[in-house]
Every structure is written in structure tokens, then in C-alpha cells.
Amino acid sequence: MRIKGTRLSVVNNGDLRLFNDISFSFSMGELTVVATDSTQKATTFSMLASGRLRKYQGTLSIVSSEGKKRPNFFLDASIDKSTLSVVPSESKKHQSLFDLHKIRSMTAVVFTPIIDEPDEFLKAWQIISEEFTFAGKNSSRQYALDYLEQEISEDIGNPKLVRIKDLDSIDRIKIFTKLAAARPGVKFIFITMPERYGGLPNRWFKEIQAVQTENNSVILITTKIVAKLLKRPYYDLDNGMKLCSKIKSKSGT
Predict the structure, then answer these.
(1) DSSP per residue over 199-233, as a string?
(2) What's the pLDDT tens digit per position in 201-226?
(3) Who contacts 121 (Cβ-Cβ below 8 Å, separation ≥6)?
(4) DSSP-assigned beta bridge partners for residue 4
(5) Res 252: pLDDT
(6) List of domains in the chain
(7) First-residue to last-residue Cα distance in the chain
(8) φ and ψ of 117, to 5 deg
């Protein structure tokens, strides 16, 4: 199974073109790195590829392992030329919104600015309890506290008092990435710019690698500097999703 985007374009505020005819394919069993120097582009791409953006031009679809496509989102939509965004035709509007709900149910977004960014002063166990509710697990305070104590790497005091802001950057990335991957039905996990919480990229990237399995697809959206530090091929979102597979050495060769 894979998410496939074809000739997708997004225009913000009617005049700022964020993406122009970009295409991508994210398959199960893979960890993909997408890089951009723009936080706005990173956020918008995360929302677009995960089915959380309603206005765009192009098609977004789920392709099964047999090669059959599920309904193309907004394939039959009409284009508002004044904004270059897509407006579903009345006859297809209900179906289009249903399809977007379908793809959202198969995706999770982690650390997407504003969209998935819990209040820094909330108790960590409260957010964990909420995630357990989504996953259909025991969401009691004690169960959440036990999980928190199990996952943190250092003693940060009474777990009942630990706020989101108190978590070590590596622990924060590990905990919330694992919780997102555990949500029922989630197959595609979009992680947006976790480097803003600090920590060495090579350290927190190991936690992201740990949640990627043959039964899901993990997409890391990060800056180009971090992508290069990780020494992995990445898709350049600022350059039409061009694949950058050659990592230069210090000598420039």
C-alpha cells in the first residue's frame, strides 16, 4: 500500500505558490526523508499528504498492494482559477470529504506546528492518557504515569508533575512518535521538524527508525541541513521533490 500524490499544487492567500506540480509516492515498509528550508512548506506538506488540507490542485490517492487505486481525492473537482485551489463540485463534494476522512484515518501527524503541538505546560501524563484513549487502551492516570516512567531516559522528578516542556528532546520524540504509530488503523506517519526541540539529529533519528516497520510508512519532514547530517537520500521540497541521493564528503568529493 502507498500514498500517491500526482501534480499537486497549493497556493496560499491567493498569490503565494507553495508547491507547483509536485508528485510523490510513500510506500509501506519505508522511511522517507523530505527536506525544506521553510516551516510553512513543511507544515502545509504534512497536512496535504496526510489528507488534512482541503484546497489544492491535483490528485491524492491510496494505492493498494494489488496496484488498485482507492478514489482519487478531488479528481472531479472544479478549479477556482482566481486562487488556483481546488473547490469540489457540488455533486462530488460529499464524496470528496468522505475520501479525505478515509485517508486521515490511515495517517498520523506528529509535531506539525499548530496542528499537533500540545501546550508545553500541560502534564505529560495527560497527553499520554489522551493518546491511549485514541488507541482504545487503558487511559487511566496510573497507566499513563507507568508508561511515562518506563519511557523516559533520566530521572526528572515526580512523573505526576512532569510537563511537556520538562521532557528531554529525545524522550519527547520517542514517546510521541511511538504513540502515534500505535493508533489503530494508522499506516502512514508524518513527523514534522522534530529538530526544533533540540538534541543531536543522529540520536533522535534512531527513535524514528525504531517505529518504522514493514507494516507502516514513516515520512520525516525536516530541514536540508538536518537531512544532510543524517547522510540519507532526501526529496527536496523546495525543488519540485527532486531526489538528492549524493551526500558530499567534507572534502567536497
Answers:
(1) S-HHHHHHHHHHH--TT-EEEEEE-HHHHHHHT--
(2) 999 999 999 999 999 999 999 999 99
(3) 163, 164, 165
(4) 25, 61
(5) 44
(6) 2-122+163-244 (3.40.50.300)
(7) 37
(8) -135, 90
